[in-house]
Amino acid sequence: MSVARGGRLAAADQAMLELNQSVEVDKRLWREDIDGSVAHIGGLEGAGILSSEEAQTLRDGLSQVAREIEAGQMQWDPVKEDVHMNIESRLVEIVGAVGGKLHTARSRNDQVATDLRLFARRRGVEILEALDGLGGVILGRAEEQIDVLMPAYTHLQRGQPSRLAHHLMAWQEMLWRDRGRLVDAITRLNESPLGAGAVAGTGFAIDRASVAQSLGFSGPMRNSLDATASRDFLMELVSALAILGVHLSRIGEEIVLWSSSEFGFMELSDGFSTSSSMMPQKKNPDVAELVRGKAALLIGATTTLMVLEKSLCFGYGRELQDDKRPLFDSCDNARIALNALAGAIETASFRADRLEGALERGHLTATDLADYLVTQGVPFREAHHIVGGLVRKASEQGIELSKLSAEELLAAHPSLQGSEVRAALDPRTAVERRALFGGPAKARVLEAIADARARWQLAQKESIAGA
Ligand code: ARG
Fold first, then answer.
1. Domain 109-358+456-466 is found in CATH 1.20.200.10
2. Whose CA is nearest to atom 5 of ligand 1?
3. Do 169 and 142 contact (CB within 8 A), yes or no?
4. What is the DSSP string of 64-110?
5. Which of 17, 112, 194, 322 to mutate to test the pocket of ligand 1 (most atoms within 8 A of CB)?
6. 354 and 260 in contact (C-beta within 8 Å)?
7. pLDDT the model gives residue 467
8. Atom 11, ligand 1: which residue's CA is nearest?
9. How far, CA to CA in Å, does 179 sit from each of 173, 174, 302, 459, 460?
10. How far apart are CA 249 and CA 290, in angstroms?
11. Which residue's CA lies nearest to atom 7 of ligand 1?
């Protein structure tokens, strides 16, 4: 007879057992489960339900269970359904009948909600650390590559001259917002469900605030029904990871493109490349492709969690049990992707010759020439039209806008003469002219790097709730 069925029910059918059990997945919550139980023991002791000797016996018993699990000696039994019942029944085996007092004033509903919050907080902080690692790597590379120019693209067509560091800093900005979303999610989920019981609390005088405090939570959840039935904290964390995953996939896609012979902008180190089982010459950017793939899994997990809770009437419904795998997988996938991408970017080499060489084709300074005309009093629309005509002329001759003769330029507009025109057509000058806030001029990008470094460093010093 299984503990989970109590005295009410006879043995479960085999098919039910298979559906019902979750221990193969949720045993990963064992540490959080024991931490939650130790806090609950404090609550029971404070309420006079456990004597201090009994409380100590339970704590010692749980420490032994923890040691056994760590040593791989725990016999996880699917008949006992889940991590909670497995640990409790092992405790009873170790300490005897007094172990049966642990579950006073508690349900697996507030228990699992607590375990999940503790787990999400811990793993969330680990992911933050990995994200900080990637942010630091990108900032370092941006600083080091500050003088390298490259085209800025729209529609994957060369648009305007810019610099590699500005591009890398765009990645960084995106990741900085991901960091904020993660911190928000971790901060908001940091509340204690313990004491909420199955749904409507308990008649025992548990001091929920001090139990919450002993787990590093900001306080007890305000409503016992909500505390046991809501999983938006998981949706929020995992969807923040899904957005992060989408962002990493964009970086991954650029790495795939940039390390192709067609672009040749960068080369991954051997340590982050893979070979082909058939084609001996291959050096493949699998790291970036696998990172792209993780985004799919993260999006899928978010969908799973949302659909699990969709239309669920209050309170707890058993399908919530299936919230574990999407949470665990998302935390693993996000951390793995971040660490691999950080290593790949840190050890890659950028090819300045190819990056700057790409400025030579595509009439990249057309906007700058139009802007020059604007400085001569020509309305921008008209300037746009004039320069468009010149680009057409250059294209017909198979040359670049900057290679048109002085006569051809002058024929297009009387102001198109002199050294300022030639300067407008020079990519390096064009980049430096874009010296406004957010632009790619060297001084601006250096400022942006310094500002970002200060922000990331400050954020890393700020302690995250309860962690
Ligand atoms: N294994 C369950 C879960 O993860 C624990 C809660 C079970 N509660 C219940 N009333 N059957 O959701």
1. yes
2. 108
3. yes
4. HHHHHHHTT-----GGG-SHHHHHHHHHHHHH-GGGGGTTTT--HHH
5. 112
6. no
7. 65
8. 318
9. 10, 9, 18, 9, 10
10. 9
11. 108
72: phi then psi, degrees, rounded to nearest 5: 75, 20
Maximum Cα–Cα distance across the chain: 101
Q: Please name the CATH architecture into which domain 366-425 falls.
A: Orthogonal Bundle (1.10)
φ, ψ of residue 284 to 5 degrees: the values are -100, 145
Q: Which two tokens stand for residue 170?
A: 């765009």
419 noted as active-site residue = no
Ligand 1: lining residues by beta carbon, under 6 Å: 22, 26, 82, 108-109, 112, 316, 318, 320-321
The Cα 58–Cα 204 span in angstroms is 19
**Phi then psi for 161, rounded to 5 degrees?**
-70, 140
Q: Which residue ranges make up each domain of the chain?
A: 18-104, 109-358+456-466, 366-425
Whether the Cβ atoms of residue 338 and residue 131 lie closer than 8 Å to each other? yes
Closest ligand 1 atom to 26 CA: 4
Compute the radius of gyration of the chain from its Cα atoms: 30
Residues 6+ apart with CB under 8 A from 217: 117, 190, 191, 192, 466
Residue 152's DSSP bridge partners are: 160
Tell me whether residue 413 is one of the annotated catalytic residues.
Answer: no
CA distance 150 to 352: 8
C-beta of residue 190 within 8 angstroms of C-beta of residue 465: yes
How many Å apart are CA 355 and CA 258, to the nearest integer? Answer: 9
- Quote the pLDDT of residue 2: 66
Q: Which residues of the chain have pLDDT under 70?
A: 1-3, 466-467
- Topology classification of domain 18-104: Fumarase C; Chain B, domain 1 (1.10.275)
Q: Return phi, psi of residue 162, to 5°.
A: -150, -160
| Count of positions (residues) in the chain | 467
Per annotation, catalytic residue among 210, 260, 276, 395: 276
Burial of 340 from C-beta contacts in 10 A (0-12 / 13-18 / 19+): buried
Confidence (pLDDT) at 282 = 83
The residues facing 349 across adjacent strands are: 267
What CA–CA distance (Å, rounded) separates 294 from 297? 5
Write down the residue that tokens 């102001």 correspond to: 415
400 closest CA partner among 365, 373, 448, 443:
365
Q: Do 324 and 33 form a contact (C-beta atoms < 8 A)?
A: no
Q: Which helix (H) or strand (E) holds 354?
A: helix 352-357
Measured distance CA(228)–CA(244) in Å, rounded: 28
Nearest to 334 by CA among 301, 357, 306: 301
Is 0.70 topped by the overall pTM? yes
